[in-house]
Design brief:
Elements (H helix, E strand, L loop, with lengths): L3 E9 L28 E2 L1 H17 L11 H8 L11 E3 L2 E9 L5 E5 L1 H13 L12 E2 L14 E3 L2 E3 L3 E2 L1 H13 L8 H7 L3 E3 L2 H10 L2 E5 L2 E2 L4 E2 L5 E5 L5 E8 L18 H11 L3 E3 L10 E6 L2
Parallel strand pairs: 5-10, 6-9
Antiparallel strand pairs: 1-15, 1-17, 2-4, 3-15, 4-5, 4-15, 7-8, 11-14, 12-13, 16-17
Helix pairs in contact: 1-2, 4-5
Length: 309
């Protein structure tokens, strides 16, 4: 059904809480995670809902596109109806998976980390999009010339309060960093700092170390509810909430299908002719910034988007 696939990148500008509901652990309101790896993710329903909401807001303003001014009919054809749906949507999304996770470092404030498991899966999914990333995924490596290495003799780096020894400056790691610099960020001057930073401040750690960091180094804050009349904390209203940190980078796959044939002769014909048109409309109208997850009123979940063409 879906014939065209492209990668969609999410870059957290502020911490995001795409919640999993209650939990039996120490955090009252945890973020969504994969069951088998415990890696953070955004469920595809959260991804699609957030983007559809952004497109609805654009339709209210009749944003101009090469297919004509956006309206609700156009958005419903692409994303599907909220109620009484009579056909599937022309666009689909996979879960947004973690690609790069920010960790405090002794030098250069922070570094992005990833692992062979994440990179291998990313390579497989890029191949579905017709994109080849032919690099090996060696763990315990940094790009050649990285400032993260604090001891050239012992090849040490420091992430959080942990020291990692025998870190190799590796050619494949350098290629990964350069590929990310070229493809992950929008090609505008505002992201020049980030493109330069990832070329040096990037580490491929082991799968086990990555799992520990994405499990233990998320933002966990304590919140309370105040009784307005008394100005004191409401009894039983103390809770903890988990966030995926700012500068986290995730990716999803966007899939499009050609318009379905109209059964009703009186129905308005589609402005799209094939899956390429649907993807073109999505790419043209996709906002540079969306809000995803909960707590929008306190500035959480502000996210940059970038479709890799």
């Amino acid at each position: 059904m879906y014939k065209l696939t492209k990668p969609l990148i999410f870059i957290n500008n502020t911490p995001s809480h795409v919640g999993a509901g209650g939990d039996l652990g120490v955090v009252d309101l945890p973020i969504q995670r994969e069951r088998h790896t415990n890696f953070p993710k955004y469920e595809s329903s959260s991804v699609k809902g957030s983007i559809k909401d952004a497109f609805i807001n654009l339709a209210k303003k009749n944003k101009a596109t090469r297919f004509g001014p956006m309206d609700n009919n156009m958005v419903e054809e692409v994303f599907g109806k909220d109620e009484k749906a009579d056909r599937i949507s022309l666009i689909a999304f996979t879960d947004a998976r973690i690609l790069l996770f920010p960790i405090k470092s002794l030098t250069n404030v922070f570094a992005w980390i990833t692992c062979p498991k994440v990179l291998s899966r990313f390579k497989q999914e890029m191949k579905l999009c017709g994109i080849e990333v032919p690099y090996r995924t060696p763990s315990n490596t940094v790009p050649i010339g990285s400032d993260l290495v604090i001891s050239k003799e012992n090849k040490k780096i420091v992430l959080e309060e942990y020291t990692f020894e025998e870190i190799e400056e590796n050619e494949d790691c350098t290629r990964w960093a350069n590929w990310f610099a070229e493809h992950l960020f929008p090609s505008v001057s505002e992201f020049e700092y980030w493109r330069n930073k990832i070329k040096k401040d990037f580490v491929i750690v082991s799968d086990e170390v990555f799992t520990d960091f994405v499990t233990l180094s998320t933002d966990v804050i304590t919140r309370v509810k105040i009784e307005r009349d008394k100005g004191i904390v409401k009894e039983g209203a103390l809770f903890t909430e988990e966030y995926l940190p700012a500068e986290s980078i995730l990716y999803s796959l966007v899939m499009t299908a050609p318009p379905l044939k109209q059964k009703d002769q009186d129905s308005k014909p589609s402005v799209f002719t094939d899956e390429e048109d649907v993807m073109s409309f999505f790419a043209e109208a996709l906002p540079e910034v969306i809000q995803i997850g909960g707590n929008a009123t306190i500035g959480k979940g502000i996210t940059y988007t970038h479709l890799i063409e």
